[in-house]
Amino acid sequence: MGNGLSRPSPVYSRKLNRHRKISMNSDCGSLSDCSQEGCCALGPGCPELIEEEILQSVFIKGLESQKVRYEKEKVSDIYCSVKKKSDRRTEETKRHQKRITFDESTCVSPPKDSLDEVAPNVIAFDTLLNGPLKKFVELSNTIGGDVSKVGAMVFDAFNAERGVLVIASKSKQPSQEELVKILAPVSELIQSIQDFREKNRKSAFFNHLSAISEGIPALGWVAVTPAPAPYVKEMNDAGQFYTNRVLKDWKEKDKTHVDWVKVWIQTLNDLQAYVKQHHTTGLMWNPSGKSATASVPSVQPKVALQMPGPPPPPPMGNLDLSTPKESAEDARNKLFSELNKGEAITSGLKKVTQDMQTHKNPSLRSGPAPFKAAPLGETVSKASLVSTPTSKPPKMELDGKKWIVEYQKNQSNLVITETEMNQVVYIFKCENSTIQVKGKINSIVMDSCKRVGVVFDSVVSSMEFVNCQSTQMQVTGVVPTISIDKTDGCQIYLSKDSLNVVVVSSKSSEMNILVPKDNGDYVEYALPEQYRTTFNGTGLTTVVSDIA
User: Which of 237, 419, 451, 456 is spaced 20 to 30 Å from 166 by Cα?
Assistant: First the structure.
């Protein structure tokens, strides 16, 4: 055999040399025909030669078997490598198909149209829905309660906006009246989210609801031109005040709430990027599409029930209601003839008698009554059914870990004494009142109050003013943070132990901080309300205005 496989083994070679040596020392001197006893010629019948040939044959077959096994292993390795590459391509194909298909388990319902009929901007919007929005809904369900409910409402609002994008991708730009009808579902869902927040002010997740209520108007970018992307960012920033409060309250309690805030902010950031890329100057319509009203789905938003109108009037008959035409020349001559009458021109005026003169009759100065009450037994008009809002009864009680002080008016001796460090005080819709809080508590929130003052010893986290007018605050102990939002008129009296306080203000005016002196008096400092911003070549520089 070739490739050196037929070369004899070393054992065989040594025995062959030994046979030759014995043969050369024998008397016959022959290597092939020696038949003498004791001669060890390598003839065909030599037993040792036969044994060596068998060993040589086994050695050669072993090499052949090893070569075949090597070839098989090589082929097997090549097959495994090819199979791995094939499996990898199959997995990539499956992942790609999973990205472009719509599953019922995801937050977006499967579209009725096939993928080749869906516009690219709608597919990009679906990516947003299946990404951060889906995660947001999952975290909302994990938190539960009112957060889960508002998460479902946000999901419905985004789905309604997707319907608007589908209509826009297939339709020409409609008129303003038609556009209002198309955007009605989105507008109604945004309003329902804001109403849900107002109806649940006592909720333990009120900051969560407020963050969504302030940011959800970002979906109204579809009606903004020519730059809708900055509008989305503005709505995102509007809810930052409440998202920061959620982070502050829950960052050490439950990380789920922190992730919830981050995912919501990411959803609005992705929405802004989507609008900037696909709808830079406004909602994109299809110039070659059909009428927008024909693309509106059959399911319309709920409308108010309408009462049947009056019966149609009887036929007018052949009445000629046209006025006789008068030439311009005749009208001019008539005008000059009236002017030529002189003093007689006032002869046609009615005389004002004394009973018609207002300076002699004070009763005539009050003017007509806005409405007249209907007598008993007659039908009451719709205007009379509109009643003025009645004030709710005042309340001051401990609900769980929250002290609730609501609808208090003209009360100057409201005192909360039995307090703990894990309790909060919520003051809502109070007027002309003063509340005193004894002991050390977690935080105090004053919401929608007028001419209300609060005096407290110490708080662990913050004192907050929201939507208030002419309020005052005095601390005798320590307060780390004071937050002022949408408030006009706020006087803050600090103590010597609270001089390291941090004051955060936004959309507020007439804010003053009074710092105590050694003699017991106070020095008043006004918080700035105006700022001056300039461009320095690389960015913006903002400083307090000199007239602030």
Answer: 237
CA separation for the pair 403, 526 (Å, rounded):
31
- Tokens linked to 136: 């947001």
Q: Which fold has domain 115-290?
A: 1.25.40
Contact 167, 292 (CB under 8 A): yes
Q: How far is CA 411 from the centre of its chain?
A: 41
User: Considering just the CA atoms, what is the radius of gyration of the chain in Å?
Assistant: 47
Burial environment of residue 86 by CB neighbours within 10 A (0 to 12, 13 to 18, 19 or more): exposed
- What residue has token string 């009615």? 350
Contact 404, 435 (CB under 8 A): no
Whole-prediction pTM: 0.40
Coil, strand or helix at 508: coil
Block residue for tokens 């960052």: 251
Inter-residue contact 149 to 193 (CB < 8 Å): no
End-to-end CA distance of the chain: 105
Write the CA distances from 308 to 303, 305, 378, integer angstroms: 15, 10, 21
Half-sphere exposure (Cβ direction) of 174: Cα atoms closer than 13 Å? 23
How far, in whole angstroms, is CA 201 from its chain's centroid?
21
Digit-coded pLDDT (tens) for 77-136: 666 666 666 677 667 656 645 444 444 444 444 444 444 478 898 999 999 999 999 999
- Taking domain 395-544, whether its CATH number is 3.40.50.620 is answered by no
Q: Tokens for 75, please give them.
A: 């082929």
